[in-house]
Amino acid sequence: MAFELPVDLHPDCGPIAWMLGTWRGNGHGDYPTIEPYQFGQELIFTHDGRPFFHYMARSWVVDAEGTKVRDDAIETGFLRGLPGGKVELLLSHESGVVEIWIGEAEGGKVEIVTDAIGRTEGAPEVTGGKRLYGNVEGDLLYAYDMAAFGEALQPRTWARLQRA
């Protein structure tokens, strides 16, 4: 599917423009405190001409045949483009965790790390994270590393998504 840059794209969003749209695919989750699992996922990046994208993601656990077993995570927020390829991601999770991420975007790659994390009383104890998004052969690949539950920063989820 051909992708065209929107005419009203804010210049600070140029390095992340490739992310716009809806992406769907499959991924893998693993962590010392959980059993490994497979999931389906949808990511949506939209914009209105201002220097940010609205971001929404939802996932669902699937069985070995790819059939949905149950709903999983939901997160939403704003990916902000800044001058010079800097980016910020403000993110809220259904689990009660809120995060501020900072980093850079260049050449079809976005690399961000947590700058601040807040959580509600009943939320999981997440203490750090790193995310890498890349445009690889027209697909969106990502990897999310997490530090939580007393564990050091390590791989948590990764996926390959195609533009819908």
UniProtKB/TrEMBL annotation:
Intervals of motif GXWXGXG: 21-27
Cross-referenced CDD domains: lipocalin_heme-bd-THAP4-like (cd07828)
UniProt: heme b binding residues: T33
SUPFAM superfamilies, per the entry: Lipocalins
Domain THAP4-like heme-binding intervals: 13-163
InterPro entries: Calycin (IPR012674), Nb(III)_bact/plant (IPR022939), Nitrobindin (IPR045165), THAP4-like_heme-bd (IPR014878)
Pfam families per the UniProt record, alphabetical: THAP4_heme-bd (PF08768)
Tree of life domain: Bacteria
Family: Belongs to the nitrobindin family.
Official protein name in the record: Ferric nitrobindin-like protein
Organism, scientific name: Nocardioides zeae
